[in-house]
Structure of RidA family protein:
Amino acid sequence: MAERRLISTGSPFEKASGYSRAVAQGDWCFVAGTTGYDYATMTMPDDVREQTRNVIATIAKALAEAGFGLEDVVRARYVVTDRSDIPAVFEELGRVFGDIRPAGTMIIAGLVTPEMKVEIDVTALRRGSVGAGEPASG
């Protein structure tokens, strides 16, 4: 059985809430709901675009630590708190996922704290793995 790896950003929320930023096992990586904090400064920008860029950077870093890349993302869930922010969020997502095109779901809902405007979680499947659309060799 493949080793299970827990990936952390070092965020105090992970330990306090009992979750990992990502869990990787075999050819799969599951990245938890990620909000727009800048973990270097532990600040939350006001701008939804900047929050979205921070989310993507945090997700990309967690995936990289697990040996994956954004190109491996096959599923994404996007949560925004304000319907009027969707075009800005979509524009930022399009820059990153425009050619990758994971299956996605957009939800409008409240988040844990009022300053959070966007939260994203993703599932990645390592490209080229058996069962990922390519036949086994042999």
Remarks:
- The helical segments are 12-17, 48-65, 86-97.
- Residues 48-65 form the longest helix (18 residues).
- The first strand starts at residue 4 and ends at 7.
- The domain at 4-9+20-123 is CATH 3.30.1330.40 (60s Ribosomal Protein L30; Chain: A;).
